[in-house]
Please model this.
Amino acid sequence: CNRYLIKYFGKMGINQITEKDIAQYREWRRFYWTLGDGKDIEEVEYKIGGKIVSRRRNKNEGRLSASSQNKENTVLRQIFEYARVNGYVSANEVVTIKNVKTDGAKRGYFDRRDYQTLLSNSYWRIQKAGNMRVAHDRANLHNFLVITANSGCRVGELTGLCWKDIDWDFRDSEGQRHLALSVEGKTGKRRVICQG
Model:
């Protein structure tokens, strides 16, 4: 919100924002990382689980995808709805924000064979490590892959995981034992039951 909406709209009152302003914001936002203010940013900061973390900016970050634009449009619509409900704008001052068309492409995924190939190669890399430190790092990566695949957790959720977040003896409604993780990430806190 600070990086995009507040930076672009500044102190402009919500009742002053027009459809033209939204269209100009969209264009500014689409090229933020390639041609705009973000092109010179080296470190990206964001919040995960209440903590501020940073990462080096991926130079491959390009124009904003249609899907991401639509997610931001949802946020904008919610801001205008909040303003309407709380009397900051009248119903006729609420800007119409339409979603952009997506290409319909689905996000890729690993099937069982891809997963087995990944695990086999990961294990092979541990065996071929030149020294103990490299073998240790590769073993950690291998374990991370296994946990990620069997839990369905996001990377940010797993990097914040502590021993206290692991329930080694979770029982489902049928009394079957599972490993359960209490994770927190971009969707808030949730319990994850691991498979496998």
In short: The radius of gyration is 22 Å. The chain has a mean pLDDT of 87.
